[in-house]
Amino acid sequence: MTKLENNIKPLENLPKCQTGIRGLDEITDGGLPKGRPTLVCGSAGCGKTLLAMEFLVRGAAQYNEPGVFVSFEESSEELVQNVASLGFDLNDLAAQKKMYLDHIRVERSEIEETGEYDLEGLFIRLNHAIDSIGAKRVVLDTIESLYSGLANEGILRAELRRLFRWLKEKGVTAIITGEKGEKMLTRHGLEEYVSDCVILLDNRVEGQITTRRLRIVKYRGSAHGTNEYPFLIDEYGISVLPITSIGLKHDVSNERISSGIPRLDTMLGGEGYYRGSSILISGTAGTGKTSIAATFADATCSRGEKCLYFAFEESASQIMRNMRSIGVDLEPWMKQGLLDIYAVRPTIYGLEMHLVKMYKLVNEFKPKVVIMDPVTNLISIGSETEVKSMLSRLIDFLKASQITALFTNLSHAGGALEQTEFGISSLMDTWLLLRDIEIGGERNRGLYILKSRGMAHSNQIREFLLTGRGIDLIDVYSGPAGVLTGSARYAQEAQDRASELIRKEEIEHRKRELDRRSKALEAQITALRSDLKDAQEEVDKLLQQDKTEEKVLTEDRAEMMRRRKADV
Amino acid sequence: MDETEIKDSIEEFEQSLLKEMNERYILRLYVTGMTPKSIQAVLNIKKICEENLKGRYELEVIDIYQQPVLAKDEQIIAAPTLVKKLPLPLRKLIGDMSDKERILLGLDLKQK
Question: Which residue in the set A114, A125, A146 is minimally distant from B99, CB to CB?
Answer without folding.
Answer: A114
